[in-house]
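Reminder to self: tokens first, then the designed residues, so the page reads top to bottom the way the pipeline ran.
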């Protein structure tokens, strides 16, 4: 609660009537910002949980051909080894940069 001197300063600068309204508006804006932040955080947590569930389902589906092919190839070690090699092929990710060409005098092979 402002004392007499503080009130006089506010009145002198014509802030006595405007300041409470401005402070109330600032507090309301802050409260709205906090509410939006909380809503965004809840949405993020929900999206992460949904992404994890989808990821788990994808991994389950990816494992199905592995089991089927192991059964299909039976005791044929060569085919099972080929399947293991084929399923472990690493693909370049999106946005991966191409490797830089080697430096120096490089000539095509004859």
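Designed residues (110 positions):
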């Amino acid at each position: 609660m402002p004392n007499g001197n503080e009130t006089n300063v506010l009145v002198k600068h014509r802030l006595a009537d405007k300041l409470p309204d401005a402070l109330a508006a600032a507090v309301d804006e802050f409260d709205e910002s906090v509410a939006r932040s909380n809503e965004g955080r809840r949405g993020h947590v929900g999206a992460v949980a949904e992404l994890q569930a989808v990821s788990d389902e994808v991994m389950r589906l990816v494992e199905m051909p592995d089991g089927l092919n192991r059964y299909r190839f039976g005791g044929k070690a060569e085919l099972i080894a080929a399947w293991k090699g084929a399923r472990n092929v690493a693909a370049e990710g999106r946005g991966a940069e191409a490797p830089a060409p080697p430096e120096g005098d490089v000539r095509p092979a004859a």
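The CA atoms of residues 65 and 77 lie 17 Å apart.
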